[in-house]
Amino acid sequence: EVQLQASGGGLVQPGGSLRLSCTASGFTFGNYDMGWVRQAPGKGPELVSTITKSGSRTSYADSVKGRFTIFRDNAKNTLYLQMNSLRFEDTAVYYCAPRTRVNGRDYRGQGTLVTVSS
Known about the structure:
Elements: E1 3-7, E2 10-12, E3 18-25, E4 34-39, E5 45-51, E6 58-60, E7 68-73, E8 78-83, E9 92-98, E10 112-116
Parallel strand pairs: 2-10
Antiparallel strand pairs: 1-3, 3-8, 4-5, 4-9, 5-6, 7-8, 9-10
């Protein structure tokens, strides 16, 4: 069974930092490009960042470029998102997901809530 467990969210003040983690199981994590997706209240999902299988290439939404860093540890089956200089508009539930289907299915893990508030 594919499982993607995100953690690390919480309440943070504007300008603060958080590091999200996503631990994967049930598939060969190192064989998949991965991404972080967020969904703010009342809005549709937004692809925040992606990373290739090896971690050699990354991409970022314009809204987070220069503030967020995605990286992975394939030995630990874990994806990370370092978030700095957080803004009110970063408030959302953050999910990790493989960029392609696993065994013919799309998966999005249990998300973690990030709330940026003063």
